[in-house]
Amino acid sequence: MTFSPNAVARLRDEREEESTKPYLARGSRAPRCHTCRVIESHCLCSWRPKVSARSGVCLIMTKKEVFKPSNTGWLIADVVSDNFAFIWSRTETDDGLLALLSDPQWQPYLVFPGEYVAPERVTHTVEIASSKRPLFILLDATWTEARKIFRKSPYFDALPILSLLPEKLSRYRLRRSTRSEHLCTAEVASLCLELAGDSEASSALDAYFDVFSQHYLDAKNQLPINESSVAHQELGVFVKDLPHNRSQ
Questions:
Q1: Which strands, in side-by-side order, build the sheet including 133-140?
Q2: Bias regions of kind Basic and acidic residues — which residues (predicted)?
Q3: Is residue 234 part of a domain?
Q4: What domain range includes position 162?
Q5: How far apart are CA 134 and CA 128, in angstroms?
Protein backbone atom coordinates (compact mmCIF):
# COMPACT_ATOMS: atom_id res chain seq x y z
CA MET A 1 0.00 0.00 0.00
CA THR A 2 1.17 3.52 -0.82
CA PHE A 3 0.55 5.72 2.20
CA SER A 4 -0.42 9.37 2.02
CA PRO A 5 2.13 12.11 2.80
CA ASN A 6 -0.50 13.29 5.26
CA ALA A 7 0.79 11.72 8.50
CA VAL A 8 -2.67 11.49 10.06
CA ALA A 9 -4.06 9.68 7.03
CA ARG A 10 -1.03 7.39 7.02
CA LEU A 11 -1.49 6.66 10.71
CA ARG A 12 -5.14 5.83 10.14
CA ASP A 13 -4.27 3.48 7.28
CA GLU A 14 -1.64 1.74 9.40
CA ARG A 15 -4.11 1.36 12.26
CA GLU A 16 -6.72 -0.09 9.90
CA GLU A 17 -4.23 -2.69 8.69
CA GLU A 18 -3.41 -3.65 12.29
CA SER A 19 -7.02 -3.80 13.54
CA THR A 20 -8.87 -7.09 13.70
CA LYS A 21 -12.22 -5.27 13.44
CA PRO A 22 -13.13 -1.80 12.17
CA TYR A 23 -13.62 1.08 14.59
CA LEU A 24 -17.16 2.41 14.06
CA ALA A 25 -17.20 6.10 14.91
CA ARG A 26 -20.50 7.98 15.03
CA GLY A 27 -21.64 8.55 11.46
CA SER A 28 -19.11 6.10 10.04
CA ARG A 29 -21.77 3.99 8.31
CA ALA A 30 -22.36 6.68 5.67
CA PRO A 31 -20.21 6.21 2.53
CA ARG A 32 -17.28 8.58 2.98
CA CYS A 33 -14.34 9.67 0.88
CA HIS A 34 -11.38 7.65 2.15
CA THR A 35 -9.07 10.65 1.91
CA CYS A 36 -11.02 13.52 3.50
CA ARG A 37 -13.56 11.41 5.48
CA VAL A 38 -16.44 13.63 4.45
CA ILE A 39 -19.55 11.97 2.98
CA GLU A 40 -18.75 11.33 -0.69
CA SER A 41 -21.33 13.75 -2.09
CA HIS A 42 -19.61 16.56 -0.16
CA CYS A 43 -15.98 15.50 -0.71
CA LEU A 44 -13.45 18.15 0.28
CA CYS A 45 -10.39 16.86 -1.58
CA SER A 46 -10.49 19.35 -4.46
CA TRP A 47 -10.38 22.23 -1.97
CA ARG A 48 -7.03 21.27 -0.45
CA PRO A 49 -4.87 24.43 -0.17
CA LYS A 50 -1.31 24.72 -1.44
CA VAL A 51 0.91 26.84 0.79
CA SER A 52 4.38 26.67 2.33
CA ALA A 53 5.36 26.88 5.99
CA ARG A 54 8.66 26.98 7.85
CA SER A 55 7.06 25.41 10.91
CA GLY A 56 6.38 21.74 11.49
CA VAL A 57 3.51 20.13 13.38
CA CYS A 58 3.44 16.89 15.36
CA LEU A 59 0.10 15.42 16.43
CA ILE A 60 -0.11 13.07 19.41
CA MET A 61 -3.34 11.11 18.99
CA THR A 62 -5.35 8.47 20.80
CA LYS A 63 -6.23 5.19 19.10
CA LYS A 64 -9.86 6.24 18.64
CA GLU A 65 -9.26 9.86 17.62
CA VAL A 66 -7.43 8.91 14.44
CA PHE A 67 -10.60 7.24 13.10
CA LYS A 68 -13.14 9.96 13.94
CA PRO A 69 -14.60 11.65 10.82
CA SER A 70 -14.88 14.93 12.73
CA ASN A 71 -11.18 14.98 13.61
CA THR A 72 -9.42 18.15 12.37
CA GLY A 73 -5.83 16.98 12.77
CA TRP A 74 -5.72 15.73 9.19
CA LEU A 75 -6.58 19.25 7.96
CA ILE A 76 -3.36 20.49 9.56
CA ALA A 77 -1.36 17.73 7.90
CA ASP A 78 -2.85 18.71 4.54
CA VAL A 79 -1.68 22.32 4.97
CA VAL A 80 1.70 21.92 6.74
CA SER A 81 4.06 19.82 4.63
CA ASP A 82 6.33 18.87 7.55
CA ASN A 83 3.72 16.99 9.54
CA PHE A 84 4.06 14.05 11.92
CA ALA A 85 1.55 11.95 13.85
CA PHE A 86 1.92 9.31 16.56
CA ILE A 87 -0.48 7.19 18.58
CA TRP A 88 0.01 7.79 22.29
CA SER A 89 0.53 4.89 24.70
CA ARG A 90 1.12 5.10 28.44
CA THR A 91 3.29 1.98 28.46
CA GLU A 92 5.18 2.30 25.17
CA THR A 93 7.09 5.21 23.65
CA ASP A 94 7.46 5.50 19.89
CA ASP A 95 11.15 5.67 18.94
CA GLY A 96 10.21 7.83 15.97
CA LEU A 97 8.72 10.44 18.29
CA LEU A 98 11.83 10.51 20.49
CA ALA A 99 14.01 10.89 17.40
CA LEU A 100 11.86 13.77 16.18
CA LEU A 101 12.03 15.58 19.52
CA SER A 102 15.84 15.34 19.52
CA ASP A 103 16.30 16.33 15.85
CA PRO A 104 18.57 19.43 15.92
CA GLN A 105 16.70 21.20 13.12
CA TRP A 106 13.60 21.59 15.31
CA GLN A 107 12.67 23.65 18.35
CA PRO A 108 9.73 21.73 19.83
CA TYR A 109 6.96 23.58 21.67
CA LEU A 110 4.36 21.56 23.55
CA VAL A 111 1.07 23.43 23.17
CA PHE A 112 -0.87 23.31 26.43
CA PRO A 113 -2.68 25.73 28.77
CA GLY A 114 -0.15 27.53 30.94
CA GLU A 115 -2.40 27.47 34.01
CA TYR A 116 -1.57 23.78 34.49
CA VAL A 117 2.21 24.18 34.18
CA ALA A 118 5.05 25.61 36.27
CA PRO A 119 5.39 29.29 35.21
CA GLU A 120 9.09 28.97 34.31
CA ARG A 121 8.22 26.54 31.50
CA VAL A 122 5.53 28.73 29.93
CA THR A 123 5.91 31.02 26.94
CA HIS A 124 3.34 32.93 24.90
CA THR A 125 5.66 33.63 21.97
CA VAL A 126 7.67 31.73 19.35
CA GLU A 127 11.27 32.61 18.45
CA ILE A 128 10.92 33.34 14.74
CA ALA A 129 14.58 34.37 14.25
CA SER A 130 15.92 31.18 15.83
CA SER A 131 18.25 28.96 13.80
CA LYS A 132 15.87 26.12 14.61
CA ARG A 133 12.47 25.74 13.01
CA PRO A 134 9.40 25.67 15.30
CA LEU A 135 7.82 22.25 15.80
CA PHE A 136 4.43 22.43 17.48
CA ILE A 137 3.44 19.37 19.50
CA LEU A 138 -0.37 19.17 19.62
CA LEU A 139 -2.28 16.74 21.83
CA ASP A 140 -5.08 15.79 19.44
CA ALA A 141 -7.56 14.28 21.89
CA THR A 142 -10.43 15.20 24.17
CA TRP A 143 -9.52 17.56 27.01
CA THR A 144 -9.64 14.71 29.55
CA GLU A 145 -7.38 12.57 27.37
CA ALA A 146 -5.01 15.47 26.66
CA ARG A 147 -4.47 16.09 30.38
CA LYS A 148 -3.69 12.40 30.86
CA ILE A 149 -1.19 12.44 27.98
CA PHE A 150 0.45 15.55 29.42
CA ARG A 151 0.80 14.05 32.91
CA LYS A 152 2.03 10.63 31.84
CA SER A 153 4.55 11.50 29.10
CA PRO A 154 7.92 12.18 30.80
CA TYR A 155 9.64 12.80 27.44
CA PHE A 156 7.68 16.09 27.26
CA ASP A 157 8.95 17.31 30.63
CA ALA A 158 11.90 19.24 29.22
CA LEU A 159 9.95 21.02 26.47
CA PRO A 160 8.83 24.64 26.69
CA ILE A 161 5.07 25.02 26.98
CA LEU A 162 3.44 27.32 24.44
CA SER A 163 0.32 28.68 26.08
CA LEU A 164 -2.03 30.38 23.62
CA LEU A 165 -4.11 33.43 24.39
CA PRO A 166 -6.88 33.23 21.76
CA GLU A 167 -9.01 36.31 21.26
CA LYS A 168 -11.85 34.41 19.60
CA LEU A 169 -14.05 31.65 20.95
CA SER A 170 -13.98 28.34 19.13
CA ARG A 171 -15.81 28.09 15.81
CA TYR A 172 -15.86 24.28 16.04
CA ARG A 173 -19.43 23.00 15.73
CA LEU A 174 -18.93 19.32 14.95
CA ARG A 175 -18.73 18.09 18.54
CA ARG A 176 -20.09 19.43 21.80
CA SER A 177 -17.73 20.99 24.32
CA THR A 178 -18.52 22.05 27.85
CA ARG A 179 -16.31 25.13 27.46
CA SER A 180 -16.60 27.41 24.44
CA GLU A 181 -13.05 28.73 24.94
CA HIS A 182 -11.64 25.27 24.17
CA LEU A 183 -10.34 25.37 20.61
CA CYS A 184 -10.25 22.38 18.29
CA THR A 185 -6.88 21.12 17.07
CA ALA A 186 -7.00 22.93 13.70
CA GLU A 187 -7.78 26.25 15.40
CA VAL A 188 -4.88 25.74 17.82
CA ALA A 189 -2.50 24.96 14.94
CA SER A 190 -3.59 28.08 13.07
CA LEU A 191 -2.76 30.25 16.07
CA CYS A 192 0.63 28.56 16.41
CA LEU A 193 1.46 29.16 12.75
CA GLU A 194 0.54 32.83 13.08
CA LEU A 195 2.86 33.20 16.09
CA ALA A 196 5.66 31.58 14.09
CA GLY A 197 5.30 34.02 11.20
CA ASP A 198 3.66 31.47 8.88
CA SER A 199 0.74 33.82 8.25
CA GLU A 200 -0.24 32.40 4.86
CA ALA A 201 -0.40 28.86 6.19
CA SER A 202 -2.36 30.10 9.21
CA SER A 203 -4.95 31.83 7.02
CA ALA A 204 -5.19 28.85 4.67
CA LEU A 205 -5.77 26.48 7.57
CA ASP A 206 -8.43 28.77 9.03
CA ALA A 207 -10.28 28.86 5.71
CA TYR A 208 -9.83 25.12 5.12
CA PHE A 209 -11.28 24.41 8.56
CA ASP A 210 -14.32 26.60 7.87
CA VAL A 211 -14.98 24.89 4.53
CA PHE A 212 -14.54 21.45 6.11
CA SER A 213 -17.06 22.36 8.81
CA GLN A 214 -19.51 23.58 6.18
CA HIS A 215 -19.17 20.46 4.00
CA TYR A 216 -19.43 18.18 7.04
CA LEU A 217 -22.56 19.83 8.44
CA ASP A 218 -24.24 20.27 5.04
CA ALA A 219 -23.74 16.57 4.34
CA LYS A 220 -25.10 15.69 7.77
CA ASN A 221 -28.17 17.87 7.20
CA GLN A 222 -28.56 16.73 3.57
CA LEU A 223 -28.00 20.21 2.17
CA PRO A 224 -26.25 20.94 -1.15
CA ILE A 225 -22.71 22.31 -1.22
CA ASN A 226 -22.60 26.10 -1.48
CA GLU A 227 -19.29 26.83 -3.19
CA SER A 228 -20.10 30.55 -3.36
CA SER A 229 -20.02 30.89 0.43
CA VAL A 230 -17.63 33.30 2.12
CA ALA A 231 -15.62 30.36 3.46
CA HIS A 232 -15.10 28.92 -0.02
CA GLN A 233 -14.12 32.32 -1.41
CA GLU A 234 -11.52 32.76 1.32
CA LEU A 235 -10.11 29.28 0.77
CA GLY A 236 -10.09 29.69 -3.01
CA VAL A 237 -7.16 32.10 -2.74
CA PHE A 238 -5.01 29.18 -1.59
CA VAL A 239 -6.31 26.49 -3.96
CA LYS A 240 -4.20 26.03 -7.07
CA ASP A 241 -6.98 24.69 -9.29
CA LEU A 242 -10.46 25.60 -8.11
CA PRO A 243 -13.08 22.86 -8.64
CA HIS A 244 -15.53 25.07 -10.55
CA ASN A 245 -12.76 26.06 -13.02
CA ARG A 246 -12.04 22.48 -14.07
CA SER A 247 -15.17 22.04 -16.12
CA GLN A 248 -14.65 25.30 -18.02
A1: 83-87, 56-61, 133-140, 106-111, 161-162, 122-123
A2: 10-20
A3: no
A4: 7-31+50-196
A5: 8
Asked whether the CA dihedral 186, 188, 194, 198 is positive or negative, the reply is negative
* Domain total of the chain: 1
- Written as one letter, the residue type at 178 is T
Whether residue 203 lies inside any domain: the answer is no
pLDDT in tens, the chain (248 residues): 344 589 999 999 888 877 655 555 554 567 889 888 899 999 999 999 999 999 999 999 998 899 888 899 999 999 999 999 999 999 999 999 999 999 999 999 999 999 889 999 999 999 988 899 999 999 999 889 999 999 999 999 999 999 988 665 555 454 444 444 468 899 999 999 999 999 999 999 999 999 999 999 999 999 999 999 999 999 999 997 766 544 43
Q: Has residue 173 been placed in a domain?
A: yes
Contact status, residue 195 vs residue 125, Cβ threshold 8 Å: yes
